[in-house]
């Protein structure tokens, strides 16, 4: 009888540590975040009055919030799109290499082994108007020096370039793994039918790789929404808020102006926005039924 009880409770005992960690580091922080988003919460105030939906109502009138939504949208679409195109091209090239594949792969993966703060600082020095290497090459081409990070028209593209440099290898390695999992038979059948290299890529590679592509895009989209470290090291949200993303204004409101309640409300809206995008995409591609059909 005791052994039977132990057998039944065994799976729950094994899951208990993981569930406890999930409760401590995911569920409780989210409940706390949601709670303070309905308060005028500040660490310097003894009383944290309940304000209901006032923080959320304030968002609707906050120009900085809507600017951050626009900047985040431009940043996410640009970075994820470029990283996918370049990453897919690199994955296809590496997959065709007969020798030196591991060496080139190791070299290309170096950027994702670096901390975002280090990458941000490195590109900040490289884009310096006075002694940066970017302006050295600009002058070699006969153009004048450019203020990459203080020019409102160039600051966001500079940030996008930095993110693309660091995270394209991440996209590449996922797509390369997917390419290696495609069997040879469909390509052999396409070759017998007289398909060209482009037709094989369009009608064999892309359909076989479609689920991997969606997973890679979703992972990078989630991560791109959270960008903060690189912005802090390179532009600090400027100039004139052109690189101020949702993650940046959460920091700005919460830790600079100590408006924790308002910052929490922005975080909740950001979470809802990300989850809504992901659920929309997952429904469209029917990824929930991924294991049942192919």
From TrEMBL:
What are the entry keywords?
Cell membrane, Membrane, Transmembrane, Transmembrane helix, Transport
Subcellular location per the Swiss-Prot or TrEMBL entry:
Cell membrane
Q: Which InterPro entries match?
A: MetI-like, MetI-like_sf
Domain ABC transmembrane type-1 residues, every copy: 69-283
The record's listing under Pfam families reads: BPD_transp_1
Q: Which PROSITE patterns match?
A: ABC_TM1
Q: What is its main location?
A: membrane
Q: Entry's Gene3D superfamilies? A: MetI-like (1.10.3720.10)
Q: Where are the transmembrane segments?
A: 12-38, 71-94, 106-127, 154-179, 200-219, 260-282
Q: How does it sit in the membrane?
A: Multi-pass membrane protein
Task: Say if the entry is tagged with keyword Cell membrane.
Answer: yes
Instruction: Give the UniProt family note.
Output: Belongs to the binding-protein-dependent transport system permease family.
Indicate what this protein is called per its UniProt record.
Answer: Carbohydrate ABC transporter permease
Q: What is the lineage of its organism?
A: Bacteria, Bacillati, Bacillota, Bacilli, Bacillales
């Amino acid at each position: 009888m005791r052994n039977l009880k132990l057998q039944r409770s065994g799976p729950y005992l094994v899951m208990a540590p993981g569930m406890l960690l999930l409760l401590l580091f995911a569920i409780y922080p989210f409940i706390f975040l949601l709670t303070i988003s309905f308060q005028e919460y500040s660490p310097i105030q003894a009383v944290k009055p309940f304000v209901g939906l006032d923080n959320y109502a304030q968002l609707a009138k906050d120009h900085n919030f809507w600017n951050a939504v626009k900047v985040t949208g431009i940043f996410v679409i640009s970075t994820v799109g470029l990283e996918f195109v370049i990453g897919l091209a690199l994955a296809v090239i590496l997959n065709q290499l007969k020798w030196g594949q591991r060496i080139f792969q190791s070299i290309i993966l170096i950027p994702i082994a670096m901390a975002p703060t280090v990458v941000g600082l490195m590109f900040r020095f490289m884009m310096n108007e006075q002694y940066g290497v970017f302006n050295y090459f600009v002058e070699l081409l006969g153009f004048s020096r450019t203020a990459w990070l203080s020019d409102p028209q160039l600051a966001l593209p500079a940030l996008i370039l930095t993110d693309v440099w660091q995270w394209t290898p991440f996209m590449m390695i996922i797509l390369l793994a997917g390419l290696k999992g495609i069997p040879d038979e469909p390509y052999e059948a396409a070759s017998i039918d007289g398909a060209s290299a482009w037709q094989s890529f369009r009608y064999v590679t892309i359909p076989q790789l479609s689920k991997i592509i969606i997973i890679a895009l979703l992972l990078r989209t989630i991560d791109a929404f959270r960008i903060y470290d690189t912005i802090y090291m390179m532009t600090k949200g400027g100039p004139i808020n052109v690189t101020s993303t949702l993650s940046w204004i959460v920091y700005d409101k919460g830790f600079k102006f100590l408006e924790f309640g308002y910052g929490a409300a922005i975080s909740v809206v950001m979470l809802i926005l990300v989850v809504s995008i992901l659920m929309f995409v997952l429904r469209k591609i029917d990824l929930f039924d991924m294991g049942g059909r192919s």
